[in-house]
């Protein structure tokens, strides 16, 4: 089974278009695995997918995009559904990073980091992760530094995505630095 393809399909279902699978996301993004499997089994390529495959897909993935708990599964970040997924605010590290195309930098330094099509701004815990995120759109991306500790002390909320990814509602430009 092509777990990378399965992961993409799940990200689409659990981040962007659950209604296409007759699924409704719980307020923290969870869906019942049994419901998800019913939907997947309608498609010939996913006719044989089992809960074990979902577990294996998560275990094999380089990035932790999904998690399973007590018969349910959810995407950990990336959502664009109309109803904002509820996340618990958490204390971020002092510095976070954001990789972005060079062409976006002047707008970001003027308006701050905005979630754009997604529900949250996505930040990286380390420069290497930020570089990979930025390289999706620019071979030589800009890496911005976010003064997350200071922003949090001044009332900006941060949320945990996975071990490399943090989320925020918005990052005002005064907390963003370029090299
Ligand atoms: C930019 C992938 C101009 C922002 C990745 C980014 C990540 C602005 C783009 C996750 C702006 C939004 C999320 C402003 C923000 N002016 N541009 N004021 N504010 N932007 O894809 O962070 O592989 O929604 O810099 O690896 O690139 O799918 O966010 O370039 O972890 O699991 O607007 O998605 O993960 O782009 O990526 P995105 P992102 P997966």
Number of strands: 9
Radius of gyration: 17 Å
Principal-axes shape call: elongated
| CA(first)-CA(last) distance | 44 Å
Order of strands side by side in the largest beta sheet? 1-3-2
Oligomeric state of this protein: single chain
Rounded mean pLDDT score: 97
Largest sheet: number of strands, sense, barrel closure: 3 strands, antiparallel
Helix content: 25-40%
Walk me through what this model shows.
- The protein is an alpha+beta fold and 179 residues long.
- The chain has two domains: 3-75, RNA 2'-phosphotransferase, Tpt1/KptA family, N-terminal domain (Arc Repressor Mutant, subunit A), CATH 1.10.10.970; 96-177, Alpha-Beta Barrel (ADP-ribosylation fold).
- Helices cover 31% and strands 18% of the residues.
- It contains six helices and nine strands, in the order H-E-H-H-E-E-E-H-E-H-E-H-E-E-E.
- The chain has helices at residues 3-16, 33-41, 51-60, 105-111, 127-135, 148-153, and strands at residues 31-32, 66-69, 72-75, 96-100, 121-124, 142-146, 158-160, 165-168, 176-177.
- The protein has a three-stranded antiparallel beta sheet.
- A hairpin with a 4-residue loop joins strand 7 and strand 8.
- Helix 1 (3-16) packs across helix 3 (51-60).
- The longest helix has 14 residues, at 3-16.
- The protein is elongated and about 50 Å long.
- The mean pLDDT is 97.
- The structure holds ligand HQG.
- Residues 63, 65, 78, 100, 104, 107-108, 111, 113-114, 116-118, 122, 133, 165 line the site of ligand HQG.
């Amino acid at each position: 089974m092509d777990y990378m393809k399965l992961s993409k399909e799940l990200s689409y279902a659990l981040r962007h278009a659950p209604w296409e699978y007759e699924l409704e996301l719980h307020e923290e993004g969870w869906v019942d695995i049994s419901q998800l499997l019913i939907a997947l089994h309608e498609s010939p390529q996913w006719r044989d997918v089992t809960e074990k495959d979902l577990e294996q897909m998560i275990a094999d993935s380089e990035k932790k995009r999904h998690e399973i708990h007590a018969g349910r599964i959810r995407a950990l970040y990336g959502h664009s559904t109309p109803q904002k997924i509820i996340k618990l605010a958490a204390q971020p590290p002092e510095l976070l990073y954001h990789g972005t195309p060079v062409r976006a930098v002047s707008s970001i330094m003027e308006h701050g980091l905005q979630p754009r099509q997604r529900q949250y701004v996505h930040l990286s815990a380390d420069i290497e992760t930020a570089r990979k995120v930025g390289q999706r759109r620019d071979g030589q991306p800009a890496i911005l530094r976010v003064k997350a500790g200071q922003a949090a002390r001044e009332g900006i909320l941060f949320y945990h995505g996975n071990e490399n990814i943090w989320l925020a509602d918005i990052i005002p430009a005064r907390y963003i630095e370029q090299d």
